[in-house]
Amino acid sequence: MKKIDVFLLKSFIGPLIFTFFIVLIILILQFLWMYVDELAGKGLDFKVLSELLYHFSLTFVPTALPLGILLASLMTFGNMGEFSELSALKSSGIPLQRIMLPLIILIGFIAIISFFFSNNVLPYSTDKARTLLWDIRRKKPDINIQAGTFYNGVPDFSIKITTKDPVNNRLDNLIIYDHRERRGNYSVILADSGYMRLTRDETGLIMTLYNGHGYTEMEEKNVNVNLRKYPSRIDNFKEQQIVIPLTGFDLQRSEEGLFKSSAAMLNISQLSFTIDSLNRKYNEKLNNQFKDFKNIKLYVVRNSIPNNTNQTEKTDSLNKIRKFDPKALFDSLTVMEKRTVLAKAIENLKESTSILVEKNDSQRYEIKAIKRYEVEWNKKLTMSFACLVFFFIGAPLGAIIRKGGLGTPAVISIFFFVIYYVISISGQKLVEELAVGTFAGMWAASYILLPIGIFLTYKATTDSVILNIETYLMFFKKVKDFVYRIFINGSGRKSASDLK
Questions:
Q1: What is d(CA 66, CA 70) in angstroms, rounded to the nearest whole number?
Q2: For residues 77 and 398, is the Cβ–Cβ distance under 8 A?
C-alpha cells in the first residue's frame, strides 16, 4: 500500500466515525421526540431505558451509515481541495479515480458489512426493540395525583385533592369515589388529610386517611322503583386505611418472538422462503377459483346430457350445446318468458359482479402482503448499496466545492439525503400500492442518484467549476455589464446626438 493510500484512509476514517455517531445520535433524539409521550411518566428505570435505546440505535445503523459516508467523504475531499492537496496530487499525474480507489475499496467492505448487519443483527434488534416498546406502552403511568382535578389512574377509584405538600407528600381535603361495585357513585369518602404509599412488592396502594366521613348508598333489592327510599350509611373515622390492588403499573415483559411474523424481523433466506410460500398459495388459490368457476359454468351443460349415453354421444351433445344460437332461442320465447329470463340474467349479473369484486379485493390484499415482504427483501440490499452511491456523490462534490469543515458539507449532505429519502419512501409507497414493480420502486433512488454521482466524478476529474460560486458571480457580472451597455450607454448616446 502506498503512502497516498494510507494518507487517504487516515483522513477518511476519522471523519467517518465522527459523522456516523453524530447522525446516530440525531436519529436517537428523533426517536425520543416521537415517543416521549409514551415514555414519560411510566417510572422506567435506567436499565430499561438504556436497553430500549440500545436496541433502537442498532436499528438506525443501516440508515446512519450512508449519511455518515456522504458527510465524511465531503469533509475529506473538501479539506484536501481547500488546502490544495488534491491539486498537488493531480499535478503529479495522479487522476482523481486513482486517489479515490482505496476509499472505494473501503466503502465496498463497509457495504458488505452493512448488508450482513441488516441481514443478521437488524431483525433481532428490531424484534427486541418493538417488543420492549410494546411492553412499555402497556405499562400504566406512575400514580401522580395533581391538585384540583379528579385522578382516574387508580383502578375503580376517582380521587381529587385540594392541595399537596411537596415535602412530606401529605394530601389535603380528599374526595374519593369508589366504583368497585359498578353501581355508579354509590360510595364516597371525604377526609381532611391523608397519605398514599405503595406496598413493598408494589402490587398494591395503601391510602391512609384522617378525620373523615364515608357515605355509602345501600342497595335495595326486589323493591318497586316508585317505592324506593334510597337508604344510606354514614361512617365517621379518625383514621382509616384502604388497600387497593394495582395491576398494569409494573413492566410486564413479553416473550421473545411477539412480532416474529413481521417482515422486518426476517433475514434474506426467511424472506425468500416466505415470499415463495405466499406466491405458491396465491397461485393455488387462483387455480382453485378458476376450477370452481368452470365447474359452475359447465354444470348445466353436464347435467343436461343423459347418463346412459356413451362417451361419443356425450361429446356430440356437448358440441351441439356449445354451438346453440342464443338469439334464436331468445326470440322463440314468449313475452313473459323473455321478461323472466332478463330479470334472472340481471340478478345473476349483479351477484357475479359482487363475487368478482370480493375476489378482487381478497387477491389485492394477498398481493400487498407479498409486496411487503419483497420490499423488506430489497431494502436490505438498497441500504447497503446506498453507501457506494453516497460516496460517489460526496467525494467528487468535496473535490469540486473545495470547502472542508462541517458547515457546507453538512448542508449538502442533508440536501442529498432528503432527496434519497423522499425518492425511497415514494417508491416504497408505490410498490405497496401496486402502482409499480418492486425493483423499479425500491431501487429508484439508487438508479437516479448513481448517474448523478458518476457525472460529478467526471466533472471533478476534469476540474469543473460547476459548484464554484465565483463562476456564477462572474457570469452575472457579465450579464449586468451587457445590460448596462445596451440600455444605459445606448440611451445616453442617443440623447447626445439629439443635442447636436
A1: 6
A2: yes
- CA torsion sign for 95, 97, 98, 102 is positive
Same domain, 116 and 80: yes
Residue 454 inside a domain? The answer is: no
Per the structure, how many domains does the chain have? Answer: 2
pLDDT in tens, 148-196: 788 777 777 888 888 888 777 788 888 888 887 777 777 888 989 888 8
**Residue that is written with C-alpha cell 394530601 in the block:** 171
Dist. CA 305–CA 311, nearest whole Å: 11
**Would you give the distance in Å from CA 116 to the centre of its chain?**
22
Beta strand 157-160 with 163-164 is unpaired
Which phi-psi region, left, alpha or beta, contains residue 93 (left: φ > 0; alpha: ψ -120 to 50)? left
Residue 497 resides in a domain: no
CA pair distance 324, 342, nearest whole angstrom: 18
Q: Which amino acid is at 203?
A: T
Q: What are phi and psi of 464, to 5 degrees?
A: -75, 155
Residues 174 and 282 in one domain: no
Question: How far is Cα 319 from Cα 301, in angstroms, rounded to an integer?
Answer: 10
Torsion on CA atoms 284, 288, 289, 293, rounded to nearest 10: 150
**Is the pLDDT at 468 greater than 80, yes or no?**
no
Let me know how long the chain is: 500
Range(s) of the domain holding residue 1: 1-139+263-399
The confidence score (pLDDT) of residue 108 equals 92
Task: Tell which of 372, 399, 426 closes a domain.
Answer: 399
**405 torsion bin: left (phi>0), alpha (psi -120 to 50), beta (else):** left
**498 assigned to some structural domain:** no
The tens digit of pLDDT for each residue in 74-98 reads: 888 888 878 888 878 888 788 888 8
Cα separation, 58 vs 129, in Å, equals: 9
Q: Which residue has the cell 438506525?
A: 60
Q: What mean pLDDT is reported for the chain?
A: 78
Q: Are residues 47 and 177 in the same domain?
A: no
Cβ count within 10 A of residue 234? 8
Whether 116 and 198 share a structural domain: no
* pTM attached to this predicted model: 0.67
Burial zone of 131 (CB within 10 Å; 0-12 exposed, 13-18 middle, 19+ buried): buried
Displacement of CA 414 from its chain's centroid (Å) = 20
